[in-house]
Task: inverse folding
């Protein structure tokens, strides 16, 4: 009992961070209607600045750094960290979130995910990928309660964060600006009538949220050290806390944060017990936020208040694809030629591009056609790759049956994740899927009893006696493997075009446009979503198998949440509504041919994540139709100019102001 | 009109509550095949609520029967599948699809079987196009088939909504202010179309139609039966001639200035 209490108190360190991030998320959502997936990443930056100052007196800026000569005192360093947080809040508001304040939910989710990727990439570049030590602001010590020694630092931390949250609560409750912020969350005009600019209020909210998060992470990271990936993803449990509080109550945020932190810590203790099953030892604490999210969304369902859910996801228009012989042949010839004329890392880059194209295509199905947001595509791919290693090396299932089987496994997983999509949409669906992806990553891919650290070998494919393995002797990228990837990709693209141009594609687009009108037209909306998730995850799963085959083994690093988000980034960049967009995404995608060129020719490989993050922010703000869509529009415009010779208007880009809709009862 | 095995649509004591507000209170209305039934009442009387409840878009108490079979437990898309079709007061077309695609979305099946057929079945060029053309002919909009739905005028969108509800066939058609957005000339033409839909376009009997509109001359001119709602209660049900002289109707509705068109 005593140990449990001690562990619960240790968990307060996490709880304090959740309080900071959760309160910030709530405030920003109140003020802007946006769920900021970058809250954790933003909070991390100021903490890193603080830590670096205390380590060697360097003030690290996004570009360049200032050497202060000697290490500043804790107070000065903390102050500089907080000033950084204020600036970051302002930058986030004016440069990133304000431009999308009236944009479709999808663009808002994508922008905040892009900001998250960008800051995370920048942290890796500036501060390094490894854990760094953080000076403790609070004294170490312990208090004894009824004879039990409890660590005092965690308790102090929690008290400080709870007090700061109380200040935010008082701001929302008792100041005119706070009341206007609350009013603005229902109706922006109300804030205007009170004499406030919703825009200013939103800027203030972003700054407060950024500072609050930074304080929390600076205090909390003294316990564990800072690490770019973990702290960025702490936003996921904080989102769970936000949902528990129904995005409304700061009081519940504080309580839920404390309970969640303590609970995760106790789980950490329980998994070390001899009776705890070995296979469930690692990552089990990450299941909890996901479970919380699922329970909350299923129990409360559509009763969650959210501005986001009032808008349907409005996306660029879709041009229904047709199978045309000439372009298909040209593409096939170009593909074969590109693979045949290159070798080594360039051929491998092109092959990877083809695989990434498939991952992007899975987003085209789900997001472009069906209008559903999923941040779990990487996990679907990983689940298939993972299964592939089991069925090939343990069961000896032959190729291509093995790959199809694994695609179906991913498909089943996708349909499971689709269940919450029956009731929720928009940003809330993004929360569920990222929580699912994180749970799968930590519990399955990083679980040493399921996925040994030395990797899962995947048997090379052979078909009719032809060796399709990726390596042989000194050839690290065999042509026959690349051609197999090309053939599989061509088959999947063909399947996609058949579906997209058929009754299925039309039903997807109808659901995307208007769910209740679709239901009143006899379309089974739930079934349609199930089918969409199933097909999308199937495509992602096949891509995951190909990634596995191209590595010869499966390692968790290929399928992290971030890898999945990076693919979302390039899919959106390329154009999320078309095959052409998926192809552009493949070319630009992680480890694809552009990456290989960046690394080989310009030596810029390390900057790739940063460039893709920034590119995504710009695309989401300036050019929601993506590269492919913009090119198509320009081509169409030039054609019209040429044919008419007149003054044709350039076609309007997607309508960025969705009309509010009554809540759907589907 | 309380024939239990009666064909068409029938509601029995339909009640809808929104929190404390009783938006429909014990409303019993029937719509027989071939019949045009009017539903009128001032703004906020609960007309749209009635349609929402009947088609499964809002929770209600009471019974809903289609051809004598209870359908109140069915999901909206299944009610449509069993022949109950509706339009929306605000149009609610699939704005990013062409008019023809809007109609095809309603007329063509979707599901796993369709996925398989899409993948491996033979494609006929222009499959389902005859359904589209005949439904568009009914509302006289053949020439906009390839226009994007959101580029239509409001009046046209409403009519396309009617065509979409007709596409693929139906037994009962619920029209929520379909003529709002039309001028009086177009409105008269529309009245003639409503009658001819109910008469099956000359092929014997057509679907039953429930017509909601604020245009009195349209409703009283075209309907066989008129129902009047006020504060969620059915205060009158009878022929248009009776409605014109009924004191409660005159006091509740006709006496007040009637907006000719109301969106
Ligand atoms: N989803 C809802 N939630 C709560 N109240 C609602 C909802 N929909 C309608 N109401 C209320 O129910 C009442 C009836 O509304 P309804 O839309 O059915 O009226 P109506 O007769 O169609 O009016 P109009 O002629 O303006 O279209 C109104 O008071 C309305 O405010
Ligand atoms: Mg109405």
Result:
């Amino acid at each position: 009992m005593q140990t449990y209490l001690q562990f619960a108190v240790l968990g307060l360190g996490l709880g304090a961070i959740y309080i900071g991030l959760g309160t910030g998320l709530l405030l920003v959502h109140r003020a802007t209607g946006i769920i900021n997936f970058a809250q954790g990443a933003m909070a991390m930056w100021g903490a890193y600045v603080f830590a670096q100052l205390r380590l060697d007196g360097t003030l690290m800026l996004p570009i360049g750094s200032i050497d202060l000569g000697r290490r500043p005192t804790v107070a000065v360093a903390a102050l500089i960290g907080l000033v950084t947080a204020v600036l970051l809040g302002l930058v986030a508001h004016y440069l990133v979130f304000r431009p999308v304040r009236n944009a479709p939910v999808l663009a808002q989710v994508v922008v905040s995910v892009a900001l998250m990727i960008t800051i995370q990439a920048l942290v890796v570049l500036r501060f390094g990928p490894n854990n760094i030590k953080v000076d403790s602001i609070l004294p170490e010590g312990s208090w004894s309660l009824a004879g039990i020694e409890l660590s005092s630092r965690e308790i102090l931390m929690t008290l400080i964060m709870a007090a700061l949250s109380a200040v935010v609560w008082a701001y929302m409750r008792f100041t005119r600006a706070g009341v206007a912020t609350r009013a603005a969350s229902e109706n922006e005009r109300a804030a205007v009538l009170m004499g406030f600019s919703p825009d200013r209020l939103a800027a203030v909210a972003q700054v407060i949220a950024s500072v609050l998060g930074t304080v929390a992470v600076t205090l909390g990271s003294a316990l564990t050290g800072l690490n770019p990936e973990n702290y960025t993803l702490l936003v996921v449990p904080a989102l769970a806390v936000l949902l528990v509080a129904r995005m409304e109550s700061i009081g519940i945020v504080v309580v839920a944060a404390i309970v969640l932190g303590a609970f995760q810590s106790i789980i950490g203790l329980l998994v070390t017990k001899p009776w705890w099953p070995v296979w469930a030892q690692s990552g089990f604490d990450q299941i909890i936020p996901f479970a919380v999210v699922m329970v909350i969304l299923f129990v409360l369902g559509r009763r969650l208040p959210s501005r986001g859910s009032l808008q349907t996801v409005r996306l660029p228009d879709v041009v229904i694809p047709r199978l045309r012989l000439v372009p298909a042949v040209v593409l096939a010839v170009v593909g074969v030629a590109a693979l045949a004329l290159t070798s080594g890392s360039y051929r491998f880059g092109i092959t990877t591009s083809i695989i990434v194209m498939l991952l992007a295509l899975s987003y085209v199905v789900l997001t472009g056609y069906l209008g559903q947001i999923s941040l779990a595509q990487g996990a679907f791919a990983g689940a298939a790759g993972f299964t592939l290693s089991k069925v090939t090396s343990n069961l000896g299932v032959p190729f291509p049956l093995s790959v199809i089987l694994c695609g179906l496994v991913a498909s089943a997983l996708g349909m499971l994740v689709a269940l919450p999509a029956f009731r929720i949409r928009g940003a809330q669906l993004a929360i569920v899927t990222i929580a699912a992806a994180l749970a799968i990553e930590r519990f399955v891919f990083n679980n040493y009893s399921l996925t040994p650290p030395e990797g899962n070998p995947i048997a090379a494919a052979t078909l009719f006696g032809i060796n399709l393995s990726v390596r042989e002797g000194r050839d690290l990228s065999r042509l026959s493997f690349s051609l197999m990837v090309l053939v599989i990709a061509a088959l999947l693209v063909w399947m996609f075009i058949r579906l997209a141009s058929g009754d299925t594609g039309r039903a997807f687009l109808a659901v995307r446009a208007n769910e209740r009108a679709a239901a009143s037209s006899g379309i089974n909306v739930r079934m349609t979503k199930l089918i969409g998730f199933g097909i999308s995850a199937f495509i992602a799963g096949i891509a995951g198998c190909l990634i596995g085959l191209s590595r010869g083994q499966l390692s968790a690093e290929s399928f992290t949440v971030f890898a999945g988000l990076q693919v979302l980034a390039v899919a959106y960049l390329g154009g999320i509504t078309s095959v052409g967009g998926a192809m552009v995404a493949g070319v630009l995608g992680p480890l694809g041919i552009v990456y290989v060129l960046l690394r080989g020719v310009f030596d810029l490989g390390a900057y790739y994540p940063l460039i893709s993050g920034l590119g995504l922010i710009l695309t989401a703000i300036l050019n929601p139709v993506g590269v492919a869509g913009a090119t198509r529009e320009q081509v169409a415009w030039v054609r019209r100019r040429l044919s008419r010779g007149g003054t044709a208007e350039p076609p309007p880009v997607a309508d960025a102001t969705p009309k509010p809709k009554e809540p759907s009862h589907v | 009109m309380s024939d239990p095995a009666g064909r068409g649509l029938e509601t029995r004591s339909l009640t809808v509550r929104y929190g404390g507000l009783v938006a429909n209170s014990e409303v019993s209305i029937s719509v027989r095949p071939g019949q045009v039934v009017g539903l009128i009442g001032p703004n906020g009387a609960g007309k749209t609520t009635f349609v929402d409840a009947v088609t499964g878009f809002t929770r209600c108490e009471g019974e809903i029967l289609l051809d004598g079979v209870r359908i109140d437990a069915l999901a909206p898309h299944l009610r449509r599948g069993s022949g109950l079709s509706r339009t929306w007061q605000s149009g609610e077309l699939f704005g990013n699809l062409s008019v023809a695609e809007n109609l095809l979305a309603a007329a063509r099946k979707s599901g796993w079987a369709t996925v398989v057929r899409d993948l491996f079945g033979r494609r006929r060029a222009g499959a389902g196009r005859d359904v589209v053309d005949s439904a568009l002919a009914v509302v006289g909009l053949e020439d906009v088939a390839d226009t994007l739905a959101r580029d239509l005028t409001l009046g046209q969108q409403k009519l396309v909504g009617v065509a979409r509800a007709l596409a693929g066939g139906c037994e009962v058609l619920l029209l929520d202010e379909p003529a709002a957005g039309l001028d009086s000339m177009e409105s008269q033409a529309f009245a003639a179309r409503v009658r001819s839909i109910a008469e099956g376009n000359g092929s014997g009997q057509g679907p039953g139609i429930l017509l909601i509109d604020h245009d009195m001359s349209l409703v009283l001119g075209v309907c066989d039966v008129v129902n009047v709602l006020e504060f969620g209660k059915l205060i009158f049900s009878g022929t248009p001639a009776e409605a014109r002289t009924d004191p409660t109707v005159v006091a509740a509705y006709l006496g007040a200035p009637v907006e000719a068109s109301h969106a």
